Amino acid sequence: MKEYYIIVNPHSSGSKAIKLWPNIKEMLEKEDFDFEYELTKGKMDAYNITIEAIKKGYRKIISVGGDGTANEVINGIFNQNYVNTKDIIIGIIPTGTGNDWGKTIGIPNDYLQAINIIKKGSIFTQDIGKVLYYENNEKKERYFINIAGMFFDAEVVKNTNISKDKNKSGTFSYLLNLLTTLFKYKSQKAEIAIDGRIIKENIFTMAVGICKYSGGGMKMLPNAIPNDGYFDITLVKEVPKFQVIKNIKNIFDGTFVNLKWVKQFRAKNVKLFSKNKIYLEVDGENLGHSPFEFEILENALNVFGEG
Q1: Distance, CA of 142 to CA of 270 (rounded, Å)
Q2: What gap in Å lies between CA 142 and CA 103, rounded to an integer?
Q3: By the 8 A CB rule, do 212 and 220 touch?
Q4: Which of 108, 119, 253, 273 has a CA 20 to 30 Å removed from the CA of 203?
């Protein structure tokens, strides 16, 4: 058996990964990595491959793709019953559109530098989140490593993912979808319990997460620390749309949290209830609808990284 199992999503970032993979493979071989690899063929394939790799005995799993691929790998790790999850280490070689998770945990976008991080062998242990949600009135759960978005954010991600399917990706595509979604979007009423504190508001958007960035570099949770045992929460109340446009640049440096419409919290448990369905995305992947319950798993994931 080899030392590493590498899961490659050839379709990440408009099939950019399949063009990069020969170079990545060559560099891994040059750096004397002992590995087996497999290319994914479709949605949730990385999830199933991860479980099979662990079953075979692999404990070092490398994800080559974007945040969505890494999310599937994480869910494979936490849904298998063969070994303790603490015995597994995940590495990432980013080839995706946003690569937002890596920005917080010290993973460079450059694949050569990312390979060097893995070779160095430093292990960073971070928290992960678990969310309970509904899909066609069926209760489901999903683990996540970065940020979960609701309300406006989930709508933007849905439209951005449609663009990705048409090979239109990147920060510009996200911003374009943000603006086009903004003109049609209406804030929604919800009841949110944050460690038992009840908030009833018309909400424009909301983020619950472990790391700082989403949407290709937007600093949605500027104060997040990935191993402090708490979710960071950014809640944006109903806000005039011209203020959203006016403050787009402030989303990238995190200073938008100082606006009067924005509230921030830290908590271990978050629940959301709503009369109308509110949709959800985690790590850039669209899921189902409300009600939601978020739970944090402290220091649950070992990553090749520097934190």
Answers
A1: 15
A2: 22
A3: yes
A4: 253
CA–CA distances in Å: residue 206 to residues 67, 137, 159, 187, 232: 19, 22, 17, 11, 11
Distance CA 43, CA 260 (A): 40
d(C-alpha 190, C-alpha 230), whole Å: 22
Beta bridge partners of 129: 144, 296
Strand partners, 90: 61, 303
Cα 138 from chain centroid (whole Å): 23
Q: Dihedrals φ, ψ of 73, to 5°? A: -60, -45
pLDDT of residue 143: 98
Strands 35-39 and 4-8: parallel
Mean pLDDT of the chain: 92
**Do 12 and 65 touch, CB atoms closer than 8 A?**
yes
Residue 150 and residue 278 in contact, taking contact as beta carbons nearer than 8 Å: yes
Residue type, 94: P
* SS3 label, residue 59: coil
Bridge partners (DSSP) listed for residue 218:
214
Which tens digit of pLDDT belongs to each residue from 167-177?
Answer: 555 566 667 87
| pLDDT at 304 exceeding the cut of 80 | yes
What pLDDT, on a 0 to 100 scale, did the predictor assign at position 185? 92
Pairing of strands 60-65, 89-94: parallel
Distance (Å, whole) CA 7 – CA 293: 30
| Site of tokens 């050569």 | 112
* Amino acid, single-letter form, for residue 160: T
Q: What is the CA radius of gyration of the chain?
A: 19
Tell me the C-alpha distance between 218 and 215, whole Å. 6
